[in-house]
């Protein structure tokens, strides 16, 4: 009887599921799968420098393509290194499958080298974590993994493969593609519930549509805009919903929240009387004080996961549905119930505050103020540019100032917020959308977490641009309302090529075969961006624009009501807005 290795069957399943890109780090306990993968003509493998970097690269690939990301690693620390990436995907509803090698089943209980119970470790940060103990279960375990990762609220899966299971043989006439991918349905809304939603919108004087990241994952942008325009409802995306509606659209109301927000959005939110959340989480950084957030307005919550409904506060109406299907049904019912509406006083109010409650960005200071960096970013890069960013003061400034016009064009590890995410995520994003300019906006501290992944992009000729806001100061920690003296811990500078800023990040890029340029003057930013985009594509390597920023710039965020008197409001009502929903504190211009 002629046989084939069971890992060959697993690779054929992945091919049949549409996998084209895999990230990973090879090691002894995963080599049978790697051998099978080397025979594939459909799947390209990219060797990353760290398993966490592999999860983030796969994450970025998924966010721009909608395809399930794949990351491989060996046993022991390879799997534990993936936990941060799994948590990030779980928090932001990103479908990913991580595959780990494992010691043979016969020695798992005998202190085998690098044998850790990765399934138990991964369970809290995955939708499903499983160890396959029988070779005959492999094909359908992988089929189920793709279904689980994508069904309902998407998320990550971990599959652990003992070495003896990987080495098993099956008959060559076995067809692993027989039966095909497992079917799953997206839940459609209850028609009566949708009719109630539309009735509540028509009865409201100042309604708001609030789409979150789930609406982007559902590819519901066009459906959202169609409904908003028909009923003339302002749209306030959550931070994770940035890009679902162009920020120059007349109905764009801005982002509400504590940090990544606009003060005109917070002011308008406090005037609203109905908020319809679609695929959002009502996360703490968005809502702040729930007593203030929920007061004097009604809420509808539409989400694909019934376990999400009422998790933070009880909405007046809850609807279980895929975001796209819900919005389509709302548009259909709205057309039955009313004629297309004209913009009224509420939409005019949005335009009024959006054009007046603005913050200063045209600073000419040296060192450069972060606000000026984002002003130049908005002016230079076109609407098709895909931005990737992570967590820190630069993320907060990005949420406050950066303009976005298309879904899946502003990507951030929002809920988990792992530092270093954007460096490998840019790799996956560029592989998924090679025709687009990809720009990672990064802080100096975040860059140092996973900067080794620059070497991966150089190795595989993957071009992208990094714009670094370097203040060498852990600015968010220093600014944080912690009531602790943190100055002893936040300074990252030391004596070096530039004594105020420590590490020479341009030299780091060059050491790995990439390129970079330091910018000290704000008027030089446009030329630096132009050089970086052109050089990156010509040389096919990452290029860094390192902007030497003011060390102590504060972001307007997170102040309690008793401190608002320290700031001068520029319009009536800003004081109350900033104190309760936050994000509206004016700069000292």
Automatic annotation (TrEMBL):
UniProt cross-references to Gene3D superfamilies, sorted A to Z: 3.40.50.970, TPP-binding domain (3.40.50.1220)
UniProt feature coiled coil, ranges: none
Residue ranges constituting the Thiamine pyrophosphate enzyme TPP-binding domain according to the UniProt record: 391-547
Record's catalysed reaction(s): 2 pyruvate + H(+) = (2S)-2-acetolactate + CO2
GO cellular component term of the entry, any: acetolactate synthase complex
A GO molecular-function descriptor: magnesium ion binding
Residue span(s) of domain Thiamine pyrophosphate enzyme central: 194-329
Keywords: Ligase, Thiamine pyrophosphate
One GO-annotated biological process of the protein: L-valine biosynthetic process
Protein's UniProt keywords contain ATP-binding: no
Source organism: Rubrobacter radiotolerans (Arthrobacter radiotolerans)
Lineage: superkingdom: Bacteria
Domain Thiamine pyrophosphate enzyme N-terminal TPP-binding: 4-120
The keyword Ligase appears for this protein: yes
Protein's UniProt name: Glyoxylate carboligase
Family: Belongs to the TPP enzyme family.
Pfam family, one: TPP_enzyme_M
Xref: InterPro entries: DHS-like_NAD/FAD-binding_dom, Glyox_carbo_lig, THDP-binding, Thiamin_PyroP_enz_cen_dom, Thiamin_PyroP_enz_TPP-bd_dom, TPP_enz, TPP_enzyme_TPP-bd
Alphabetical list of CDD domains matching this protein: TPP_PYR_POX_like (cd07035)
SUPFAM superfamilies (UniProt xref): DHS-like NAD/FAD-binding domain (SSF52467), Thiamin diphosphate-binding fold (THDP-binding) (SSF52518)
């Amino acid at each position: 009887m002629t046989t084939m290795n069971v890992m060959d069957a697993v690779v054929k399943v992945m091919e049949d599921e549409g996998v084209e890109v895999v990230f990973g780090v090879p090691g002894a306990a995963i080599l049978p799968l790697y051998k099978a993968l080397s025979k594939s003509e459909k799947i390209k493998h990219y060797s990353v420098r760290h398993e966490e970097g592999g999860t983030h690269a796969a994450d970025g690939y998924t966010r721009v393509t909608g395809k399930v990301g794949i990351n491989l690693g060996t046993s022991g620390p390879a799997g534990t290194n993936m936990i941060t990436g799994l948590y990030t995907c779980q928090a932001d509803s990103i479908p990913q499958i991580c595959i780990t090698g494992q010691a043979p089943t016969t020695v798992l209980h005998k202190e085998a080298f690098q044998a850790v119970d990765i399934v138990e470790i991964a369970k809290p940060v995955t939708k499903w974590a499983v160890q396959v103990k029988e070779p005959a279960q492999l094909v359908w375990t992988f089929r189920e993994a793709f279904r689980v990762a994508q069904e309902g609220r998407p998320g990550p899966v971990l599959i652990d493969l003992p070495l003896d299971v990987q080495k098993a043989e099956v008959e060559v006439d076995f067809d692993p593609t027989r039966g095909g991918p497992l079917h799953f349905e997206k839940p459609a809304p209850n028609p009566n519930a949708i009719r109630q939603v539309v009735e509540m919108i028509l009865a409201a004087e100042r309604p708001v549509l609030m789409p979150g990241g789930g609406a982007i994952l559902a590819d519901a942008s066009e459906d959202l805009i169609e409904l908003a325009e028909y009923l003339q409802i302002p749209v306030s995306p959550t931070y994770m919903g940035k890009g679902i509606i162009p920020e120059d659209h007349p109905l764009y109301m801005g982002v509400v929240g504590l940090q990544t927000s606009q003060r005109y959005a917070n002011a308008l939110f406090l005037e609203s009387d109905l908020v319809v959340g679609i695929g959002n989480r009502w996360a703490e950084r968005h809502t702040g004080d729930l007593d203030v957030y929920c007061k004097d307005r009604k809420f509808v919550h539409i989400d694909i996961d019934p376990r999400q409904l009422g998790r933070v506060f009880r909405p007046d109406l809850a609807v279980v549905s895929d975001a796209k299907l819900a919005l389509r049904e709302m548009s259909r019912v709205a057309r039955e119930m009313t004629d297309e509406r004209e913009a009224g006083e509420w939409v005019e109010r949005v335009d009024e505050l959006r054009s007046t409650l603005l913050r200063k960005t045209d600073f000419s200071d040296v060192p450069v103020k972060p606000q000026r960096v984002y002003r130049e970013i908005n002016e230079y890069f076109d609407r098709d540019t895909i931005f990737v960013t992570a967590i820190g003061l630069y993320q907060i400034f990005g949420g406050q100032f950066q303009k976005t016009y298309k879904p899946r064009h502003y990507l951030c590890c929002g809920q988990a917020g792992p530092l270093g995410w954007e460096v490998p995520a840019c790799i996956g994003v560029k592989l998924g959308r090679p025709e687009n300019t990809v720009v990672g906006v990064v802080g100096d501290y975040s860059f140092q977490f996973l900067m080794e992944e620059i070497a991966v992009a150089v190795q595989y000729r993957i071009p992208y641009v990094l714009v670094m806001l370097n203040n060498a100061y852990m600015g968010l920690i220093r600014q944080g309302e912690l009531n602790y003296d943190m100055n002893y811990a936040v300074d990252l500078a030391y004596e070096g090529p530039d004594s105020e800023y420590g590490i020479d990040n341009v030299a780091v890029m060059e050491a790995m075969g990439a390129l970079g340029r330091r910018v000290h003057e704000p008027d030089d930013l446009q030329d630096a961006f132009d050089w970086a985009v052109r050089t990156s594509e010509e040389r096919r390597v990452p290029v860094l624009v390192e902007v030497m920023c003011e060390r102590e710039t504060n972001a307007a965020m997170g102040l309690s009501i008793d401190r608002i008197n320290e700031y001068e409001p520029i319009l009536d009502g800003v004081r109350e807005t900033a104190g309760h929903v936050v994000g509206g504190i004016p700069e000292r211009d």
